[in-house]
Amino acid sequence: QITLKESGPTLVKPTQTLTLTCTFSGFSLSTSGVGVGWIRQPPGKALEWLALVYWNDDKRYSPSLKSRLTVTKDTSKNHVVLRLTNTDPVDTATYYCAHMVADSDATGHYFSYMDVWGKGTTVTVSS
Amino acid sequence: SYDLTQPPSVSVSPGQTASITCSGDKLGDKYASWYQQQPGQSPVMVMYRDNKRPSGIPERFSGSNSGNTATLTISGTQAMDEADYYCQAWDSSTVVFGGGTKLTVL
User: Could you tell me how many CB contacts below 8 A there are between chain A and chain B?
Assistant: First the structure.
């Protein structure tokens, strides 16, 4: 059974760096085709994808937030860390991590999706 | 950047069929996934690779994707299906979400 759990501060001050940890079980991030993604959701708003890291340490970031995001994995500890620098009140949101599957079709077309999500952690950015 | 557009809301009567659309440029050339989010809960994947149902998702959920539109269809909609639904696609090696659709069963 795959489970993921997000952890980190509930309150950060503007301009500080937000560091979140996703601790998972039921899979290994050294297995081919596996990844962990981060998604956030401001109160009352839509999901926004942030970043992902694959088993082979391939990393992808949201183009709009790329300059502020860093994602790292620690396969031995079964966790993934997301860092968001220079936070602002607009970064207030529930942050989710999710197990990702890297899939492909017969034509070699690659794509990914998030099949198991954590419960999320709420972060408020305020002075 | 690639955009996915969903109607903000869809209403359906219990037992009827609900269709939630997701539009994007040549979306049919990509694969769509769908996520259901109940109030106060984390999202749950209900469809992937256009029309594949994950284990545990009822058969009344189905999906299609062609041209510029992906569609999530819920046949025999039940009150428990009332939720927000998000489509997702993979573009330029990044994840893109639609803006979400609130499904109301009334």
Answer: 70
